Amino acid sequence: MSSRSWSLPVKGESICPYCGVGCRLELDGELGPYSASIKIRGVADAPANLGKICAKGSLLGETIATPDRLDHPMMRSSRGETFRPATWDTAINKVAGRFREIIAKHGPDAVAFYGSGQLDTEAAYLACKLFKGHLHTNNTDSNSRLCMASAVAGYRSSLGSDGPPNCYDDIEIADVVFIIGSNMAEAHPVTFDRLKAAKAARPGMTIIVVDPRKTATAKIADIHLPIRPGGDIALLNALCRLIIDFDMCDEGFIAHHTNGIAALKEYLAEEKVSALCAAAGLDQTQVERVARRISRTQTFLSFYCMGMGQSTVGTWKCNSLINLHLLTGQIGKPGAGPFSLTGQPNAMGGREAGLLAHQLPGYRFVDDAGHRRELERAWKQPEGSIQPKMGLTAVEMFRSLEKGQLKAIWIAATNPMVSLPDLHLVKRALERAELVVVSDAYHPTETTLAADVLFPAAQWGEKEWTSTSSERLVSFSPKLFDAPGVALSDWQILARMGKALGFSGFDFENSAEVWEEFRALTTGRPCDMTGITAKRLRSDRHVYWPCPTEEHRGSPRRYLDHVFPTPDGRARLLARPHQVPRELTDHEFPFILTTGRLYAHWHTLTRTAKCEKLNRRDPGAYLEIHHDDARKMDIATGEVVQISSRRGTIRLPARVSEQVAPGQVFLPFHWGDLYGEGNAVNYLTIAATDTISKQPELKFCAVAVEKIPAELKVAVRTPTPAEVAQVFAQVQVSPAALMDPVTR
Ligand code: SF4
Prior knowledge:
By secondary structure, this protein is α/β, with parallel strands linked by helices. It has 4 domains: 10-63, Phosphorylase Kinase, domain 1 (2-Layer Sandwich), CATH 3.30.200.210; 74-147 and 359-544, Rossmann fold (3-Layer(aba) Sandwich); 149-341, Dimethylsulfoxide Reductase, domain 2 (3-Layer(aba) Sandwich); 591-719, Barwin-like endoglucanases (Beta Barrel), CATH 2.40.40. Helices cover 32% and strands 17% of the residues. It has 26 helices and 28 strands. Strands 5-4-18-17-16-6-7 form a 7-stranded mixed beta sheet, sandwiched between helices. The longest helix has 19 residues, at 88-106. It binds iron/sulfur cluster (SF4). Residues 16, 18-19, 21-23, 49, 53-54, 56-57, 188-190 line the site of iron/sulfur cluster.
């Protein structure tokens, strides 16, 4: 049971812990052991949200003092047993001891850390320092691999460095806004509302939305291109080819600031626009209209998200979009540029701190000997301590666990038993693991139920933390109230583990000391935060990087001098051919399945399912299917259908609609086994990954849909209170309180 101490009143500011918009919230209210009455508003002068917030942010108060807060470390000696509470010393020493044994027997690459963009920068940095610098394994990755790895690789290969060039203020300046692979209206609602307001103020602004579905975002578009899933490169190449044919390239920009134009033109000259449009499933006249609109505008801004990156060619898709900006000189000026939207509050900070298997802090890389040496010196480690080979990435970690090569994994602030593709593989992997440690604010989650040891983590308002939003705004959030029980900040848990393993360099008094150590490592790097001191963050609240000195005001926009962080200062135009998705449909699996988010929920429901109003808006998973397909199979809305892929089968109610095209179906990805065993969409998805970014193809797989006999429909229903109580009884928390989210 939770033992939260009172800390009244709750008053102050914090960054929203949900999406990467990075809204600054103002809290005012009271918090009790099992309830919170907190009014949450947007901060009026916050650059990201200008006083606005969405329903998820405004209802955060309901997610703080819930009975399923993990407030003590928990352990068990075998997976079938019930968890027992433990002291921090016992739990940390147990894990440190097991890590030592496993490393002694199998080597450092037998252990791994799998974190998330929920971790603050301080925690991401210490995870990198502990695992890469001291345990000597690069098996240190994050669930950002699932959402932003292709954007990272795309920026790096095209522009020389990760990090979007833009800021949200570009919305009010842009004449043409091109949204591809992003349902902003549901996933980044405050940014979407800002775009809508900008369009209302300047009706001449053109909004183009590229999406296979008629999403809420597509509904405000002047032009909606209902692309065939997987056709993005074909479309982007068609646009580039048309702009070249129209003679509308910015030749001066190309000549002075890019490389690769000859090869790109030569490649595109071989491609027929008609064939590219056909591959994208689009009407050529519409594509030509878009090319003309883009080529004639003063300011062209594009937003993109997982619809681009979650693909076996996600990096190439990002390169192709950046080509469009480079050809037209639409980068490095206000109102223009390619702008990736992150799904998590600190996905950007994790990238900056090196929490990806190929990276080191300060946008350094494990395959660069100079970078490794800089970190070894900073961390007082012998030369050669950091391995030169990229570690296991998200999907690879679970494949390696399944094969019995990776033995132990520490999962922090994420729920891979819902979010990773091919959940049967993930389940087998966790069952085979010798040691599964999970740090989380809540228990149970689908992943904590598979653990041996649980570490209770303090969440957003319960700690000091630093994060970077999609627009490179580094923000500080103060502690506003106590964490329940003995829960600690993630950086404190990592520092304790570092000390228990016998390492010096983990003796920090507070989060500011961790930040200062990390900040010093960014000096001279593309993400230079030298001027963003802990003291300044605590007074100014937020600063854009790069910010090389304490006097510097920060940089809302990058590349204004048109000098890119490549060896010759030029950006790269890269010829990228269209590729078909990894899994093709056939007579056995004739539908294309795409996945995505809903407005009311965030990731795997660990917070949002606790809010009655959010559950009322989006109460459960469903299969969206087009009228024509439904009619052929005699399926009506609400009827249960069976959806199968080559990896698994699930059953869900159908929602017949015209939002999705014939031959395609859509499933929201939020729901896991806690809300109906075996019905998570990721039992179907494919674990194929992009060869460069290693991001999995969560947006495309082939499925079959069948209407199922009436007697089987009982397989999909809301669990009864008794069933829910049975699930939760094994984890020693109050079942009555936990029933709410699943029974509403
Ligand atoms: S838009 Fe994102 S950051 Fe802003 S309140 Fe909503 S969930 Fe939070």
